[in-house]
Write a structure and sequence with these properties.
Layout: H1 2-19, H2 23-33, H3 41-57, H4 61-69
Helix pairs in contact: 1-2, 1-3, 2-3, 3-4
Length: 70
């Protein structure tokens, strides 16, 4: 449960950075969140979506595809 809350904090940070167009920081936050939220399917789906979108906007298409296919 503690890991999930930590993952949620990283997700919230990531979405905040994403909305501020701070894509590098958003990417770091989403990548930190992913291994922590394995038990929460809804949060995991949202995190993977935003991680893919962030990497797409950073023109990192290989990682963007990997996140959307997970």
């Amino acid at each position: 449960k503690k890991a999930t809350l930590s993952g949620l904090a990283h997700f919230i940070g990531g979405t905040t950075y994403f909305n501020q167009k701070k894509l590098k920081q958003a990417d770091q936050s989403f990548r930190a969140a992913i291994p922590l939220i394995t038990g929460n399917d809804q949060l995991r789906a949202a995190t993977l979506f935003y991680a893919g979108l962030t990497n797409h906007q950073m023109k990192n298409l290989k990682d963007a595809m990997a996140f959307t296919q997970e």
